[in-house]
Amino acid sequence: MYTRQNQKNLTSAQKKRFVAAVLELKRDGTYDTFVRTHDRWFVPDRDSKLRVGHMSPSFFPWHRRYLMEFENKLRALDPGVSIPYWDWTTDSSPVSSLWAEDFLGGTGRATDRKVMTGPFAHDTGNWTVRVGVSEAPYLTRNLGRPNNPIKLPTAAELQWALDATVYDADPWDSTAPDGFRNRLEGWAAPRTERWRNHNKVHQWIGGHMTGGTAPNDPAFWLHHAFVDLLWDRWQAKHPGAGYLPVRPLPLGDLQRGRVLALDEPMPPWNVTPRELLGHQGVYRYEP
């Protein structure tokens, strides 16, 4: 069993090893395969197709398996590497440690959002964006959106999600009126806000992080490791509340065939949400 650490506690050597493994996956083409997988299963509510990665109950188990698959590739290169997590309620500044030159690099320049610093800057020659809607080959960010400022989620906004007493609710999409999944994914929000929690973080980073090809930015993995940890925290806080829906939706339900129940297999791996309700014996989180 290995440990996922808070990124702020990583040593310079640990950062260097993580970055090196990520760059090697990029060099051999594996990384872009992961970007394509995420984009393939980024299906919005308005589509009548199966929604497995977003705007649906399987948001948490799908991303847990996705991160584990990526982490397995990293660890095949360097068994000492794991995905760190980023607590955006505390490390909430564009000058926080994860945006340093020796780790993820900083924001994009004002003219075109092009990231100019760190190991994932295009000009280093090691990070060319090949998957996505943008024709630009460089990674883009706009931390905090200076021209239209947005703040990262607060501890109070996160607590609001953790206080939800049910996992998810009909109609099991971005309009679900309550439930931990929609509160943490961030579509459920007070009327004065457009996003909360997970979604708000993607918007705060900006650039490539705002669409289906978000994993083009390595910050994606640190963000989603924290989302995965938060699912743990919610489960511990509400031990009697489990994944919903338990059974496939009935005939006539508009969401039938579009969302997955507890024992229905999630593509592209053919594993069920039930199989991913925990990660005991695989990895643990540093407090």
Brief characterization of the structure:
The protein is an all-alpha fold.
Q: What would your notes on this structure say?
A:
By secondary structure, the chain is mostly helical. The chain has helices at 12-27, 30-40, 59-77, 155-162, 180-185, 197-205, 219-237; strands at residues 2-4, 283-285. It has a single domain, classed as di-copper center containing domain from catechol oxidase, CATH 1.10.1280. The protein has a two-stranded parallel ribbon with strand order 1-2. Helix 1 crosses helix 3 (59-77). The longest helix has 19 residues, at 59-77. It starts with a strand and ends with a strand.
Q: What does the radius of gyration come to?
A: 18 Å
What is the averaged pLDDT score?
A: 94
Number of strands: 2
CATH hierarchy, class = Mainly Alpha
Q: What is the rounded distance between the termini? A: 16 Å
- The computed structural class is mainly alpha
Enter the CATH topology name: di-copper center containing domain from catechol oxidase
* Domain count: 1
SS strand fraction: under 5%
| Major sheet attributes | 2 strands, parallel
> Can you say what the CATH homologous superfamily is?
Di-copper center containing domain from catechol oxidase
Low-confidence stretches: none
What is the share of helical residues? 25-40%
- Return the string of H and E elements: EHHHHHHHE
Q: Any idea what the CATH architecture is?
A: Orthogonal Bundle
Shape: globular
Number of helices in the DSSP assignment: 7
